[in-house]
Amino acid sequence: MIVRESINFTRQAPSIEGLRLGKTAIFLKVIYELSYDEFKDKDSGLQTISEFTEKTAHVINMRKLPSFYEENKGNSVIVQILNDILDKVLTFNPNKLEYRAGGWVNLFFRLGREEEIWSNPKWINEYTFNEFRRQDSKRTVEETKKLGANKAFVLGFTRDERELEKWGIENGATNLTYNNDEPIQSACEKGDLEIAKLLLADSKVDPTTNTADGKRYKSDETNFCIRRAAKAGHIEVVKLLLKDRRVDPASRGNWALAQCLAKGNLEICKILLSDRRVRDSIFDMNQASIKRFENYRRMGQL
Description:
This protein is mostly helical. Helices cover about 55% and strands about 0% of the residues. It is built from 18 helices and two strands. The protein has helices at about 20-35, 65-70, 75-90, 95, 100-110, 115-120, 130-135, 140-145, 150-160, 160-170, 180-190, 195-200, 225-230, 235-240, 250-265, 265-275, 275-280, 285-300; strands at about 10, 60. α1 (about 20-35) crosses α3 (about 75-90) and α14 packs parallel to α16. Residues about 1-25 and about 40-55 have low confidence and may be disordered.
């Protein structure tokens, strides 16, 4: 049998401990009904639970989940089995599931278990969030607040609804590091000092982390926050970031200083040069930037 590892669902016999025999038999039927048609083998059939070992994997077709649930939501045993499957799915890495992960999100919502993935940052990513938004698309700001801080924060951030994002942070959202700390990166790049302060109040938020794709500008994007804040001329955000010991203002060959020299933003240049790491890395810049620095210094402007 062909196995797609990223969406495998295997069931070990010991894991059904405590289940009635009837439920065990129905479990096999559920898996059979949800598997891809080309993987079904009516001759071998899913006859015994002993076949559900790590060596026998059955691949679930997520497109079948919504209609299968609607057809069987009145059957308490099948609903419980679907919940058992979701228990397993929660351990999956949604990034490996890629676009298929949205199908699982749909089922979590249908079974009333959306809070479990809303509160799990790894499950709110580029592959699942469109499904989250489809489920919540008609809600206003006030209605979204009723869904809780985590939902309000992520929906506020992705919809660019600042009021909602701020409300989520102030009301205890625990997923502030959404999409590899994209919210703090965005706040610093935009110069939103208030949101940046609120986010950095949570020690889990890391202003030095790489961008989500790691190659947003086809290069290493660590310390994105201070570099982009400096380039954009956001003085107060730069000052805020320099107070965080994790932040390296001289990263990537003194990129921040080089950009400010090129723009002639001498006020931020002076702020950056107050950090010894920046002063010690002057000659890590390219030759054009070094020349600009020496010219400004010779004129007494730095």
